[in-house]
């Protein structure tokens, strides 16, 4: 195993007994196309195993932590937590892309940053940890990196759909839909910055408002929704 994988294990918070398992969890199937030795080796089998472990860990955590939530609510939260954007976001924080074994083609087309590859790699690494240790150790790894994504809407603020989260929360809490409006547009057409305000009538004594900016209206709306979610202290399990 490459020496610099030791730094990666520090990122993971886990040291492998069988170093080949870690290496195999990082081999994308494209790598075998250019390296005969790895023609039949990839991280896909470990990914399948990791997916099953992840499902069980997250479902058990939700079941035990949110006793008052319905099956439908828990299913929505689970779906978001184990989604590709969230897993890819965690992989980026762990610097998984830096250690992936990819084909030259994948390398040149941005494979190290591609969400699908990073999300699959996270599950493969989890599968490798499970095979190298036991369920409890794998469970600890999952909760260390995913628990905040379950409990707090701002823990993965770069990858969550805040407009959907805010709308679900607003409908559930206040029985209204958030309203978005353009406050101003700054700059020339080819470099325009939008500032958008989101507003919720809380039905009690005032309107809840926040604003956000972005290079297009969609990005600015997400930024505004994120700010209001944080202001209101929205949690994923409460919103969905």
TrEMBL record:
Q: Give one GO biological process term.
A: rRNA processing
In this record, what's one Pfam family?
Ribonucleas_3_3
Where in the numbering of this chain does the RNase III domain appear? 5-134
InterPro entries according to UniProt: dsRBD_dom, RNase_III, RNase_III_dom, RNase_III_sf
Provide the cofactor list for this protein: Mg(2+)
An annotated GO cellular component of this protein is: cytoplasm
Q: Which residues bind Mg(2+)?
A: 47, 120, 123
- Which catalytic reaction applies to this protein? Endonucleolytic cleavage to 5'-phosphomonoester
Q: Where in the cell is it found?
A: Cytoplasm
Q: What class of enzyme is it?
A: hydrolase
Q: How does it assemble?
A: Homodimer.
NCBIfam families xrefs: RNaseIII
User: What protein am I looking at?
Assistant: Ribonuclease 3
Recall the taxonomic lineage recorded for the source organism. Answer: Bacteria, Fusobacteriati, Fusobacteriota, Fusobacteriia, Fusobacteriales
